[in-house]
Amino acid sequence: MASMTSPQTRFARPLLLLAFCTISFIAPQATRCDAEDLVAPTKTDQNVAKIVAALLERRHVSRTALNDELSTRAMELFLKALDPMKLYFYQSDVDEFSKYNLTIDDMVKGGDLDVAYVVFKRFLQRIDERVAVAETLLTEDFDFTVDESIVVEPDAARYPTSPEEAKDRWRRQIKFNLLVAKDEAVERKRKAEESGEEYKPTKEDLEDPKAKLLRRYKRNQKRWHETDSDQLLELFLTSVTTSYDPHTTFMSPKSLDNFRIMMRLNLEGIGAALREKDGHTVVSRVIPGGAADKQGELKADDYIVSVGQGTDGEMVDIVEMPLDDVVEQIRGHAGTIVRLGIKSGGTGETKILTITRAKVELEDSAARSQVVETDGETGPKMKIGYISLPSFYLDMEAARRNARDYRSSTKDVRDRLNEFKDDGIAAVILDLRMNGGGSLTEAINLTGLFIDQGPVVQVKDSDGRVTPYADEDSGVAWDGPLVVLTSKFSASASEILAGAIQDYGRGIVVGDVATHGKGTVQTLMDLGQEILHSNRAPNFGALKVTLQQFYLPDGESTQKEGVKADIILPSLTTHMDVGEADLEYALEHDRVEKTKHRKYSMLGNDVLNTVRTGSAKRIEQSEDFVDLLRRIESYQRQKSEKFVSLQEDKFFARRKELDSQKEEEKQLLDAEMPDDEVFRHNFYNDEVLNITRDYVEALKRQNLARAN
Predict the structure, then answer these.
(1) For residue 33, what pLDDT band results from cuts at 50, 70 and 90?
(2) Quick one: which of 52, 71, 50, 68 has its CA closest to 60?
(3) Domain check: are 389 and 537 in the same one?
(4) Residue 421: CATH number of its domain
């Protein structure tokens, strides 16, 4: 196929225009209106709310009207965006706001934003009250021998019901932060002594922890008080849009301008996808070939707690800082240095990582290959072709010019497969464990290297129309045994390929229990252009909306459930909260009619049972896998913790255990994931080789039995 640009959802444009005909627009003003001056929404803000509501109802793939259920979700999400740990609002505040739960939908449709202002002004009032309490508490002494605890899991927290309860929550919060600061200072000194180096206290070590905490609280207070009307609109409308699904968001005019500037100036970052979780900035995924990937220490599920510019710039505390502000701190020109303070999994010691910003070059994310030979200890020796594919890439500019030798993942993988034939390999392993997606066209074309024509994916848009997209090239580049290696980080286009291979019975999927589960596609709609159909339209912001959903040839969606592995290997990543199902209000899994397609005979039950049995037996007898299962159990225990002791000895003992556990987890992730080596022999990857060898042998026996 020449192009897979997502088809625009059809809708009655005259009706949409009719819906907008009563709206008169006032161009957004450049003047800033801080929270102190927030009295009421502007006329422009009210009209933008109407537009967003109309577009959501007409363009979102669910075709759901903004209703009472979504309204209740929006209020919940708005409160959570402001106060994720329930430290500021009283329960009485939340009870009072509940009168809006069933009316936000109608209010937004009518451009009424009063609820956002009512809730936000109360929030500012509560912040001022809490910071005043914290300032008083920080002048007092704390008894660290008392055996009491603090809630660390947001879902286990509840809003305080009285000033006394609120004060006690903050007392415990301060006590927790002081213990963390003391532990980290002791740990830095211990590590210096262990390495034989002279311990030189940093400026951070010498600073009074109480003064540092108060500065954080006051900085956070100041930041919220400087919120302008555009920021409040973005915060509130995104609470409304994400009630549909977590990928549908509103972008204010300022955010849209910043996005355009970033694209025009080619500013670079660290090569990591970030998300906000309960007031913290968390790494969702490290992008293969990016700066963080090359540096090698940043991992998914790491919490970024501070950012410093250059080799010696001040480490700025970013806890509770809005994600957009954090991104601005991290982003910069290629070649410049940024330092990140990170906590692995959000707990344990803060480590400082130094990363040189860089652009992800096509070469850095290109397919790499190697011929690997099995050891022959548990079966016959065999040559296996291994391909690591970090993304589905395409040099779009070169392809648009019809350049003869433009770069693409399909071309590169085809070249590797042709080379393998000369090497006499018995099977191919396609490693998609760190592949977060990319070009849909490439996913289809690359799947076509293994199947001889036929539908690869079906796409449903918001009018319910389902369109199949197929590999139209005859012939294949490899018709032998195929193993697709996946993890919970395999997303989007990766899931399309893995699912299609599974549906066609063309090979086996090996890895985590299931892939990421993102089966949707979004588009960015410039509100000014949508309304006035002109490139010179005023900047009213933008709506990123989910307008299509993917389905596999057999009709199953990859949404939320992902693609389930045929052969499951124990893995730490399976248990990380990094999948689509871990996001609030992710669209549900569903199905459409299956499309007619060929079935290959390379995924029979007898073959699968043979391979599963062999793998299970080896894993049971492997000390490495037994140790992995022990560490996974420990990780799950730590994840399920809802309370942490504030008694000093217990706190430090737990932190020591966590630091040791996090180091083990890092080693596990290093073993499970591809790295600078094309193929690295370790217990996990060697088991993949054993599975592949067993698969080849089982297919031989199957074919021999059929021949007889």
Answers:
(1) very low
(2) 52
(3) yes
(4) 3.90.226.10
Range in 135-144, 195-204, 219-228, 367-376 with the lowest mean pLDDT: 195-204
Specify whether 375 is located in the same domain as 351. Answer: no
Closest CA to 628 of 577, 569, 679, 583: 569
Q: 512 with 379, same domain?
A: yes
**Are 242 and 381 contained in the same domain?**
no
Q: Name the residue range of residue 99's domain.
A: 14-135+227-247
Does residue 259 lie in a domain region?
no
Judgement on whether residues 372 and 451 belong to the same structural domain of the protein: yes
Residues 6+ apart with CB under 8 A from 290: 269, 270, 271, 272, 358, 360, 364
| 282-307 pLDDT per residue, tens | 998 888 778 888 888 898 889 999 99
Instruction: Say how many CA atoms lie within 13 Å of 460 toward its Cβ.
Output: 24
Which tokens sit at 266? Answer: 């080619």
Q: What is the pTM of this model?
A: 0.85
User: If DSSP codes are grouped into helix, strand and coil, which group holds residue 679?
Assistant: coil
3-state per-residue secondary structure call for 90-151: CHHHHHHHHHHCCCHHHHHHCCCCHHHHHHHHHHHHHHHHHHHHHHHHCCCCCCCCCCCEEE
Residue ranges of E strands in 34-84: none
Total of domains in the chain: 3
Does 192 map to a domain? no
**Structural domain includes residue 156:** no
Nearest Cα residue to 599 out of 430, 455, 708:
455
Express each pLDDT in 224-258 by its tens digit.
999 999 999 999 999 999 999 999 999 998 888 77
